[in-house]
Amino acid sequence: ILPNGSASRTNLRIGDRILKVNNRDVSQATHLEAVQALLQPTNEVILLVCHEPQPSGLK
Fold first, then answer.
1. Residue 56: inside a domain
2. Which range marks the domain in which residue 24 is found?
């Protein structure tokens, strides 16, 4: 997650789990399948995210 990037500006954090991308379930997807879902052409990306407690020592 890059400082001042889109993910950072929307409060995504290290350890968060992306469950859906544009209403497509990616909770059991491989990394490649999840990336492909994110790269679909669209004007906006809607994510369903599960915020996990942040491990101590990570910022």
1. no
2. 6-50
Q: Which residue has the higher pLDDT, 10 or 26?
A: 26
Structure tokens of 24? 């497509």
pLDDT, one tens digit per residue, over 25-40 is 999 999 999 889 888 8
- pTM for the structure as a whole: 0.72
Name which of 12, 22, 24 is nearest 49 in CA terms.
12
